Amino acid sequence: MTRYLPVSSKNGDVSEEVQVGAPRARNRWGEGERLRGEILAAASRLLSELDGEDGLTIRGVARAAGIAPSSIYQHFTDRGALVVGLAEYEFARLRTAMEVAEGRVESGDVVGRVRAMIHASCRFAVDNPGHYRLMTADGPPLTASGARPAGPLIDVVDLLVAGFARCAAAGVALRVPAERAAVIAFVGAHGRVALFPNSTGYTDADSVLSFVDEFVSLVFA
């Protein structure tokens, strides 16, 4: 796999490659998946510095990762594929944040565990606005009539479905079935987060969490 490392041109000027980042170790045979992860991590960092995904380019991501653009094409056919891969990468980060937050709450506190997951999703969205816009830009996936949707967004909602199901199993009454409660909670939190940048007087995540807590409480009987 080709790598561009810092070199100097004949006239002594530093080549363009030295500007893409610090030298990186070569991946051994079979470590292509690691490079793919490094590319996505670099794209995630770059997105944090941009106003939106429009500024995300193959060359820019390559520069951030410290590799040649051709190395990216070995994992992503074009920019569109890279953006899709980045969205999936960010959803994985979100799921991990939610699972970690849930794990910090005692197993017997089933309502607290659900709230912890929703809080984690809100904080992720507030702290990573560009990433969150990218993740939710296309909405839920379209499916055939009667088929259950699938995809990274649905995987996140399914964490909440499981959480609300545990509430019901523990005797905590819900006004609606667990799956419906999860959708209501997620959509409510998503809507509040979407309005956050334009909210006058509400400039921190705590204001979002307070509203979301009140909203989520409505699904409990």
Would you give an account of this structure?
The structure is a single chain. The protein has a domain at 80-139 and 149-219: Orthogonal Bundle (Tetracycline Repressor, domain 2), CATH 1.10.357. The chain has nine helices and no strands. The radius of gyration is 21 Å and the shape is elongated. The chain has helices at residues 32-49, 58-65, 69-73, 79-103, 110-127, 129-136, 152-169, 178-195, 205-217. The chain is mainly α and 221 residues long. Helix 7 (152-169) crosses helix 8 (178-195).
Question: Outline of this structure?
Answer:
This protein is mainly alpha-helical. The chain is built from 9 helices and no strands. α4 crosses α6.
Notable characteristics:
221 residues; mainly alpha; Tetracycline Repressor, domain 2; 9 helices; elongated; Tet_transcr_reg_TetR-rel_C_sf; Homeodomain-like_sf
State Rg. Answer: 21 Å
Q: Helicity level, as a percent range?
A: 55-70%
CATH second-level architecture of the domain at 80-139 and 149-219: Orthogonal Bundle
By DSSP (H or I, 4+ residues per run), the number of helices equals 9
Largest sheet: none
- Shape by Cα distribution: elongated
The CATH homologous superfamily of the domain at 80-139 and 149-219 corresponds to Tetracycline Repressor, domain 2
**N-to-C terminal Cα separation, in Å?**
59 Å
Order of helices and strands: HHHHHHHHH
Number of beta-strand segments:
0
Named CATH topology of the domain at 80-139 and 149-219 = Tetracycline Repressor, domain 2
Structural class: mainly alpha
- Report the mean per-residue pLDDT as an integer: 83
Provide the CATH top-level class of the domain at 80-139 and 149-219.
Answer: Mainly Alpha
**Low-confidence residue ranges:** 1-24
Strand content: under 5%
Organism: Nocardia colli
Keywords: DNA-binding, Transcription, Transcription regulation
Protein name: TetR/AcrR family transcriptional regulator
Pfam families: TetR_C_33, TetR_N
